Amino acid sequence: MDRLGEMTGFREEQIKEACSIAMTAHKSPEKPYLLEKSRTSSDVFFSFPGSWSVSNWFTRQPFGEIKIDRSELMSPKGNDNVATSLRSIGRDELATVNEGFLRRLEMILSNSSLQSEVEKANTERKQIVFTGHSSGGAIAILATVWFLEQYKSRMSPLCVTFGSPLVADFIFNHALRRENWSQYFLHFVMRYDIVPRILLAPLSSMEPELQQILYLLNQKAMFPIQGYIAEASKFFETVMRNASAVASHAACKLMGNTNPILETVASFIELSPYRPSGTFVFYTGNGKLVVIRNADAILQLLFYSSQLCSENELEAIAEKSLNNHFDYQSALQESLNMQNVVNLDHLEGLPLSSNGAAAENVATNMALNDLGLSTRARLCLRAAGEQEKQKLSNQQRMDKKKADIEAGLAMLEDYKMKSALCKVGYYDAFKISKDEDDFKANVKRLELTGIWDEIVEMLNRYELPEGFESRKDWVELATKYRRIVEPLDIANYHRHAKNEDTGPYMYKGRPRRYKYTQRWREHALRMPVGSSGESCFWAEVEELQLYRTTNPGAFEDIRERILNLEKKLQEWIRDKQISNDVFLEGSTFTKWWISLPHQHKSISCIQGLMNS
Amino acid sequence: MSETLATFLASTPLLEEAWRLCSIANTTFPGGYLVEQIGSVAYVAFSGKQMDSGSEQRCRNLVPLDAEDGGPFAPLNRHSQAEEPIKVHNGMLNLFLSMYPGLQIQIAALMGKVKSVVITGHSIGGSTASLSALWILCQLQSTSSPISTVLCITFGSPLLGNEALHRSILRQRWGGNFCHVVSKHDIMPRLLFAEMVNHNSKIQALLHFWQWCMASPHVIVTSLSSQLPDDIKDTVFHCVLKDLELLAQAEDPSESLFWPFGSYVFCCQEGAICVENTVSVIQMMYLTLATGSPSSSINDHLKYGDYVAKVSKQFLKARNFHEEGLPDSSYEAGVALALQSSELTDKEPVQDLGFSMQNSNPRKEVPIMAKYCLQMAQNGDKPNLTAANLAIKLSKIVPFRAEIEWYKACCDEADDQMGYYDSFKLKGGSRRETRVNLNRHKLAGFWNSVILMLENNKLPHDFDRRGKWVNASQFYKLLVEPLDIADYYRTGMHRERGHYMEHGRERRYEIFDKWWRDRSVPEKENKRSKFASLTQDSCFWARVEEAWEWLDNVRSESDVTKRRLLWDLLHKIGMFEKYARELIENKEVSKDVVAKNSSFSRWMEEWKELKSRVQQLPPWFPGFVDGEVVP
User: Fold this and answer.
1) Cβ within 8 Å, pair A377-B318
2) Coil, strand, or helix at residue B625?
3) Cβ <8 Å between A442 and B116
4) Is B7 near chain A, with CB under 8 Å?
5) Can you give the pTM of this predicted structure?
6) What is the rounded CA–CA span in Å between residue A196 and residue A182?
7) pLDDT tens profile A275-324
8) Among B9, B12, B337, whose Cβ lies nearest the Cβ of A375?
């Protein structure tokens, strides 16, 4: 059997130290954070205390959530126009986080020495570990992504939390996995601890009880007391009901339920946007540990592992759901001694019934039994595993199409060369489309469109592995595709005068396959937003030309735009991102440029290029 | 997964709230309904206790839903000229119509106050709820309203309408707005499957009994049912069970007069499952009833409170599979759990019916049938996967479309200057046109299959709002429909069936019209500087064909005494001319329309000539000003 350390990539000593300092932080709530240097290693621990007022958890109805772009913390430092990593790239959907926790981190950063201490530890090449218990864990998670986003460090920070509430939505998890940051996060959850589940319920469903419960938890953080059974039971039931709704809604989707009533009913209720991210370690309550990485499965586990075995357990479990929140240190000690750790990586093959498991699954099955997972729970975990497998097989299917794309691009390259021989360039040849070759190029364009639209559709539904959009081979292929084929789309757009129908290409007509792939490149190279627009060159030319035709005299209005385009064209030509065929005699660009005022042309930066 | 869905429904507060209000409506608002607002959701609960429902109930009398003026349900009747009309139960429709005026005021008062509405009702109140929800859905479709969703939850509601109603709800994609909760043995939702003409008095007694019980909710149900004579219970139970069995064992339920629609939540002590597939619904209706008894089938109609409370608490407890031999495939295991949640495992005693099928052992039959039925209910296809595969298919047929585009470009440039439409219409048999025609059929087949999948809920629910598909279908329509029209008139179909727009237009085009209209992009007015590449009115050529006929009729009508007829024709011609001129002026047509030898250009010329002749007619004849007819 593997040890916890080997399974998670964290050292056991490290985890123990993190746990101890995370619990200590509660004892000095007046300090924004605690710093402790390991005596045995180069580790530096930053630990955050929890906060216990409802307003720190929920800044607003229904879930206290906020889009990440409202905070400057989560963008790369020093380069204003580079977008945050905490989003999906193509679809450009920003992650949502808990606003209360985010504001608290902002406050700590601006009112304390945290930033300078972190920078110091980083320059001294120490291993930074952010840690926290309860909502302190949530702050630790956000501090870790803040560090990852802002500092280029040879050594990645680590994050260990104990009984932390959820902090962010599935896009956050998506981004962490894409950036390969997921592995730096380790979250411990006791089987019945209510705190990691609280944010699955909307504030409105538990407003009066929540303050009471948080007050109780705060008391417990300081000294042991007995709980209030009635409040605890009601609270437990409310949280579980909402957790059940979130989990079963997610499970229906995982299982591919097509019944339209699912969405109708979902629109009538508040479903929590929060989802787990990173690696989770569940304590079964008898010394065993279950390690799991699949975020969909973790969500299911959060719900199912807290279910009761029988109705009359309610009060006992409800009380446990509060007490469990303070059992982390002792439980950790116990399980590190036992080293009975099960890794749930192959979810699709989990045993379904609690007794009859095949030999290689016995340990897994016992651990699942210890977490109280029913057959229904296991089916949901399997569905999560199936979905992950499906994403991989989608990726494989697309990988197989790379050859088709390459072949199509080669054919269009050929078309481009042939057209250049006729002194018009392929943009204009395609725009006129009078030869069989043009028709063939169009069919090829449409075939490629089919493949890329399929990728876009899958990205929109998050049906490809998270890392897909940052794969080097795909980013490069997409850039090549965009540079060759997008001019044809622009030509087609103007050939059919769709700009009059729908509006300018850039605002109304640009297909997502180009927007997405442009963002891929900009993200991969950490370029400012919108700076890799070489494939839209022709769209700007068409717009400027249209302006010149409709307002013949007015040059000054568009002078800036023209200068800008010329400057960029010069760079694109220099970097071979656009080829010389734009300067051919019959090209729309050449004709338009020649029509510009002499005075402008004589000092233009591309004058040399035009004349050569 | 039919079970997971039911778990989701039961974890929301909706079922409990709806039932709470239904039971208040039953006791406190007999013959009416109650409205309550909870947060941003309004609940409208119809009482199951209706004064005159008894007399209406006994007949299985179906009446058409559409009134002369369209009525409250006008949008539902749009496609149904050639098909069986939508019909609903006479008594229930009357009940709804009697409440309709008041309801209109109530619902109008809710506008602006709430985001969404839950319409609910127990027993006969459930069918009023369904009709009300249907009316609101029709309403929302034609007007922009702050209310975004309607959910109808019924408890033990009788069946409402025929297959056409079922189909039309599917087509409108409203299946997801109806949730019918049916308790294990309740006979009410199954009653109208049976032919009961001979037992009217018994049914009436039963309905009276139920009505009486609803008004006194604090009496224990089981002690009540002893007050109903046994022969009533037995007759009704066996009669329904017999007819339901025949229906369940038929391959195709189209025999049935009444059809279920929307989703059914079957609940029992062990749990609940949610099913939408019609065959599965009917089979579940049969299979669960078969495990009941005459008195449980009567009592269960009054026990929704217990069932709802039970399933709503289920999330708290881990529910294991307690049988032996759980299959290892996720799919099979899911079916086994659903069986357990509908109490259809083989331990349940099954009614041994004298008339049961030849198979000697019905005890064994039920679980096997149930398993089969649930497998059907949760067919393994994933909608997003289907959509992705469809995207691949689309990209495969795109070259066919491109070829038609290329063909159009060639026709429009050709020396004969006939344009796309007329070239295809005239040269139908030649080689090139045969190829184009083949492509046309391939594309039609593809798009028909898309619509079929969509209407059977095989595709993601927002499929018809996805830009890719809306744009692709619109482009297809504009490009290919003119060819369909050309083909229709070339082969003389208009003489057989009547004109294209009324009688020949394929349903897919109407659906694509709707997708295009419903897309969220605001219409932007922009002047075109050159002719559109495709005529924006895809039926333009059908209009031209009709205009030709009018023109011919005017010319052949020598009898000037038929002034009225002539005047009508000339009026129509004038209107068309005006319409066409506008399109051309705005360059909304493609250049094939104005090609020198196109049938439209020829029509214009002949019309001009006729007009000049007509204007020399006696003064009592209609005159013209700028192409418009003035009387």
Assistant:
1) yes
2) strand
3) no
4) yes
5) 0.89
6) 18
7) 999 999 999 988 999 999 999 999 999 999 999 998 889 999 999 999 99
8) B337
